[in-house]
Specification:
The protein contains 17 helices and 15 strands. It is α/β, with parallel strands linked by helices. Strands 2-1-4-5-6-7 form a six-stranded antiparallel β-sheet, with helices on one face. Helix 4 crosses helix 12, helix 6 packs antiparallel against helix 12 and helix 13 packs across helix 14.
């Protein structure tokens, strides 16, 4: 509910703070005193369009703040607050709207900056302003089914259906994906078989391309390499005048004549080391052998390298990645082969679920139809009490027998309609032209839904338009009954309605320092009698008028809503 409303520099209001309680609060005052300003301020908190025209002359910005409380009875509001990250302190949250003369306006919910869309979605679950189409949740056809479900006490069953239907839809999507274009799937399977056969036949190993290239390079130089080895062996060792033979001969000669010559002996040692190194090299060369360098082997290696190169270009992967590609294609083939079995399994499961869901939907439809008849009757009775004796509320449930047309809510679409007069067609609530007529229709519906609707606060702006006498008294009784489960704020010109208030505020206008100023005062008992007397007698207020006003207040406290 709305607990506090703060308005600053808004139209002819300089600064105002109002505190509201449970039950029924009324705002009264002379025409032009500023009652509509309160409603316009509330509209801003509901996401209404802002204009710089509402900023008080001489001020740079207008500010409207509202503090609200919600609890488990207002589940949609609490769910949305949680969704946007607002943590409730003592189940309270604050909405603040700032309208600057220059620049963009700002919206805060729970102290965090939010968008106008978020504000509208949240506040339509918190406040209804009857008489202003854009703020009345009952005018939204999309909400009629959920309202009827609450009235019928089948919300849990609808939620259960929704979960099961969503699971069925997921199975259907999987089945359709698998079955999509069987011809294309068959073509893909044929192509996979071709690719798998090609790669399996090639049997390329990781690193094989480098190994083949290296061996091919070696074998291509085999003849030149063998000639170089033979020439080196001849010069180093095999020829009669070889390097090893001559070096050994020089070492022997120097040893014979180098006694006592340390420098010569060192040189002979170095020559001996060189001779040993040459002999080791000769040993390695003598045992060197070249692999098969036959033309057949060279052709085999070149052919293998050509196969790997072709597969690399064809599949656009490196040779080392070809084994992994083969594994991937084999897995895809396995998936396609198994999909036929999966489709059959899904078809069987879906058939079972479809039967169960159809039965659940039929049960929901039956219970909704019964609830619609009862709710329509109660709402129509409410209209008759509100001087719309010839009007009737119709609640239409359109059900489909086609399972494919069902939604997560079942087989039904629900719409609340009004038949204003006998012989006229029923019309959607949103197309009702008269503000007073609309207010009474909504009041009758809200009376019927009083324990079901989870909107916290009802604001009635034009509830007394075009009515008076006994009808006004019935409206008052009905507002009082609604206020037992919901906070009611009512702006009225009728004493018969004001007398039923739990809290009575008077809106007045005065001129202070050449500036018009609107103020709102919570009336005590004597002030309330005086205000209702004014509403009864206008400028001529007598003791009898005051006595009548006091009697109306007393009777209102003792009264209960009459039934037909």
């Amino acid at each position: 509910m709305l607990t506090t409303l703060v308005i600053k520099d808004f139209a002819i209001i300089s600064e105002l703070e109002l505190n509201f309680e449970d039950g029924m609060s009324v705002l009264t005052g002379e025409t032009g005193a500023g009652k509509s300003i309160i409603v316009n301020a509330l509209k801003l908190l509901l996401g209404g369009r802002a204009s710089t025209d509402i900023i008080r002359t001489g001020s740079e910005e207008a500010v409207v703040e509202g503090m609200f409380t919600v609890d488990h009875r207002h589940a949609p509001a609490m769910a949305m607050l949680h969704a946007i990250g607002i943590n409730l302190d003592d189940d309270e949250f604050v909405v603040r709207r700032v309208i600057p003369r220059k620049g963009r306006g700002r919206i805060y919910i729970g102290g965090t900056l939010q968008t106008i869309t978020t504000l509208r979605e949240l506040m339509r679950t918190v406040i209804d302003i009857s008489g202003q189409h854009e703020h009345v949740s009952l005018l939204d056809d999309a909400k009629h089914l959920s309202i009827l479900d609450r009235y019928a006490c089948i919300e849990a069953d609808t939620e259960s259906f929704a979960h099961r239907f969503s699971a069925y839809s997921a199975l259907k999507r999987e089945r359709n994906t698998l079955a999509a274009s069987l011809e294309e799937r068959a073509k893909r399977l044929d192509f996979l078989n071709y690719q798998i056969d090609e790669l399996a036949s090639a049997n390329v190993r990781a690193g094989e391309a480098d190994e083949v290239a290296e061996e091919l390079k070696c074998l291509s130089n085999a003849e030149a390499l063998q000639q170089a080895v033979d020439s080196a062996m001849a010069d180093l060792y095999d020829d009669e005048n070889s390097i090893v033979s001559r070096l050994g001969m020089h070492i022997s000669a120097l040893r014979r004549v180098s006694a006592g010559q340390k420098g010569i002996q060192d040189a002979v040692g170095a020559m001996q080391d060189a001779l040993s190194t040459l002999e080791d090299a000769v040993h390695e060369l003598r045992h060197f052998s070249i692999d098969d360098a036959s033309p057949e082997r060279l052709e085999e290696l070149q052919s293998r390298l050509s196969v790997i190169d072709r597969l690399e270009r064809k599949y656009r992967v490196k040779g080392d990645e070809l084994p992994a590609l083969l594994d991937s294609l084999q897995n895809e083939k396995k998936s396609l082969v198994l999909s036929d079995a999966r489709i059959a399994e899904l078809d069987e499961t879906m058939a079972t679920e479809k039967t169960a869901l159809s039965q659940m939907a039929a049960d929901l439809s039956q219970r909704r139809q019964k609830a619609a008849e009862k709710l329509a009757l109660e709402a129509t009775q409410g209209l008759h009490l509100l001087a719309m004796e010839n009007a009737a509320i119709d609640i239409v449930c359109h059900s489909t027998d086609n399972f494919d047309n069902m939604k997560t809510t079942g087989a039904d679409e629900v719409q609340f309609l009004l038949r204003p007069n006998p012989g006229e067609d029923a019309r959607p609530l949103a197309k009702i032209a008269s503000g007073g007529e609309l207010s009474r229709v909504l009041l009758a519906l809200k009376r019927a839904l009083v324990e079901k609707d989870d909107v916290a606060c009802y604001v009635f702006d034009e509830v007394d338009t075009g009515i008076g006498g006994q009808t006004a008294t019935h409206v008052a009784y009905m507002l009082k009954e609604v206020s037992r489960c919901h906070q009611v704020l009512c702006i009225t010109h009728l004493a018969s309605i004001a007398s039923f208030a739990d809290a009575h505020f008077r809106v007045s206008k005065s001129v202070i320092h050449d500036r018009t100023q609107s103020s709102i005062t919570l009336l005590n008992e004597s002030e309330r009698v005086e205000e209702i007397a004014r509403m009864l007698g206008g400028t001529s207020i007598t003791a009898k008028t005051r006595e009548h006003a006091a009697e109306m207040i007393a009777q209102a406290r003792e009264s209960s809503l009459p039934r037909k």
